[in-house]
Design brief:
The chain is built from six helices and twelve strands. It is α+β, with helices and mostly antiparallel strands and about 260 residues long. Strands 1-2-3-7-6-5-4 form a seven-stranded mixed beta sheet, sandwiched between helices. A five-stranded antiparallel beta sheet has the order 11-10-9-8-12, with no helix packed on it. The structure holds biotin (BTN).
Length: about 260
């Protein structure tokens, strides 16, 4: 099945939203779409620019991990945003992305996809997609945010290293059929543009409400790994700014997790 991700292939789906076709760049291969997009943003690329690669040679995950990026089968892309928010709120872009991505995946008829705070999409007990949000700014001002998304669309287990194989899930593996990438990417971009527009007009509250409703995490036992600490407890809610609230046994006050690695227990 021919499955191009070029501007021509995607333009027919994008109708006048934030992600105009002229702001869409496709590359057969890049080191990392996030690295490329950050360079473009630093040189002044407008909000709504999207960088897409068919494969990546140095795909990056959170916390310095590698994001394995076999060519021709999956989605690897980065969006440039310039929200007028304080730098600490740039993490909210990750949550908007997770919400729009879960919706787009469900739109394919996939049941059981879960958003795991803050940046993973889980399916059938493994990882379907990851989000890497990076920001440049100064105290009190965001210059730009780059939100990078990797989705395991059609990657077969053998396209990944032995280490990743047991953890990775794909849409193809779940649906037992090949999924076309361009309509999925376009559907995500349109959904993201809708949520982002709402965020700019109404603030974070509608996102929080949808996210809490959608995510599988609230009410579950989690283990939280922070750089300086590790603890377990019940994820009870997301607060008004997007941070996870965790109740630890024997503690009166909820812990507010700003950025961390969460494992469901
Ligand atoms: C994670 O789960 O750790 C985040 C993974 C993010 C991967 C995507 S693929 C497109 C973009 N470019 C990168 O180098 N990383 C992100």
């Amino acid at each position: 099945m021919s499955d191009p991700l070029t501007r021509e292939a995607i333009a027919e789906y994008l109708g006048g939203c934030l992600f105009l076709p002229e702001r869409y760049s496709f590359f057969p291969s890049l080191d990392s779409t996030n690295t490329w997009a950050a360079r473009m943003a630093a040189e002044g690329a407008p909000e709504g620019s999207v960088v897409v690669a068919d494969g990546q040679t140095l795909g990056r995950g959170r916390l310095g991990r590698v994001w394995e990026s076999p060519p021709g089968v999956n989605l690897y892309f980065s969006m440039i945003l310039r929200p007028r928010v304080l730098p600490q709120y740039s993490a909210q872009m990750t949550l908007i992305t997770g919400l729009a991505l879960a919706e787009a995946v469900r739109g394919l008829g996939v049941q059981g996809v879960e958003i795991k705070w803050p940046n993973d999409l889980l399916l059938d007990g493994g990882k379907l997609a990851g989000i890497l949000t990076e920001m440049a700014g100064e105290v009190g001002k965001v210059h730009y945010v780059v939100v990078g998304v990797g989705v395991n669309v059609n990657g077969e287990p053998e396209s990944y290293s032995m280490e990743i194989q047991p953890l990775a899930r794909s849409l193809r593996g779940h649906l037992q059929k090949t999924v076309k990438r361009a309509p999925l990417l376009a559907d995500f971009l349109l959904r993201f543009a809708g949520w982002y527009d709402r965020y700019l007009r109404e603030g974070f509250a509608p996102i929080r409400e949808a996210w809490v409703r959608d995510s599988g995490i609230c009410g579950k036992q989690v283990r939280v790994n922070l750089m300086e600490d590790t603890f377990s407890g019940e994820a009870v809610d997301m607060d008004r700014e997007g941070f996870l609230l965790v109740r630890c046994p024997g503690e009166h006050q909820l812990r507010r997790v700003i950025a961390g690695d969460i494992r469901l227990l």
